[in-house]
Amino acid sequence: MADPRSGVKYVHLKRSETCGFGFSILGGAGSDLPPIVYDIIEGSPAAKSHQ
Questions:
Q1: Residue 3 pLDDT greater than 80, yes or no
Q2: What pTM did the predictor assign?
Q3: What is the structure's pLDDT at 2?
Q4: Phi then psi for 49, rounded to 5 degrees?
Q5: If DSSP codes are grouped into helix, strand and coil, which group holds residue 48?
Q6: Which string of DSSP letters, residue by residue, matches 2-36?
Q7: Which of 4, 13, 24, 42 has its CA 20 to 30 A from that of 48?
Q8: CA atoms within 13 A on the CB side of 43
Q9: What is the number of other CB atoms lying within 10 angstroms of the CB of residue 22?
């Protein structure tokens, strides 16, 4: 479990065959930005998780 003070959050999602996990990430490896979730598709596993 992540330490809430670290800003890290672990999320468990089951991938959908039709839309993947249902979110988009900006930044990350090879970028000057940390990974940031910036879009969640309505009705997707990510949206349904309410996390």
A1: no
A2: 0.64
A3: 62
A4: -75, -20
A5: helix
A6: --GGGT------PPBTTTBTSEEEE--TTSSS--E
A7: 4
A8: 2
A9: 20
| φ, ψ at 24 (rounded to 5°) | -115, 145
Q: Report residue 14 as tokens.
A: 């089951």
Report the amino acid identity of residue 12.
H
Query: From the CB of residue 21, how many other CB atoms can be counted at a distance below 10 Å?
Result: 19
The pLDDT tens digits of the residues spanning 15-45 come to 878 778 889 999 989 999 988 888 999 988 8
What is the total residue count of the chain?
A: 51
> pLDDT band for position 1 (50/70/90)?
low
What are the backbone dihedrals phi and psi of residue 20, each rounded to the nearest 5 degrees, phi first?
65, -140
- Burial of residue 46 (CB within 10 Å: 0-12, 13-18, 19+) is buried
